[in-house]
Amino acid sequence: MKFKFTLYLFYLILDSICTSASGNYVGIVGKSISIACNTNLWSENDISLILWYKGSKGVPIYSIDSRTTSLTNSRHMSSGPRYKLNVSILPPELIIDSLVEADEGEYRCRVDYKNERTQHYATFLEILGKLILISLLR
């Protein structure tokens, strides 16, 4: 006798970020993720500007300008309400809330310093969370 058994498998992962050994990130649809800008110089008084880009777009999705003030008191500009930058930790982290599949892709961080050369960091965000349908026949 054949039984058709349909199993819906959802990814159940903690609300915290998930990184691979390569430094890339894995996020879950509907959850939040924090992406660190892993350049090697971090001092609040040395940073002038932080810019985050997605993909090859030339317009930042998030920027913070601290040329005339401290990083903590600087002006934040976001391309949408789901993006935030946590500057209370070093290095600061880009937070993306309520992940959707379209968030998958390359993210690039650019940091301009007051007395050092500009540094760039790139990482890839993979999004999981599509419903997987498994049919088992017996």
TrEMBL record:
SUPFAM superfamilies: Immunoglobulin
Signal in keyword set: yes
Pfam families noted in UniProt: V-set (PF07686)
Gene3D superfamilies xrefs: Immunoglobulins
Domain Ig-like, chain residue ranges per copy: 30-125
Signal peptide: 1-23
Keywords, sorted A to Z: Signal
Source domain of life: Eukaryota
InterPro entries: Ig-like_dom, Ig-like_dom_sf, Ig-like_fold, Ig_sub, Ig_V-set
SMART domains: IG (SM00409)
Protein name according to UniProt: Ig-like domain-containing protein
Organism field: Tetranychus urticae (Two-spotted spider mite)
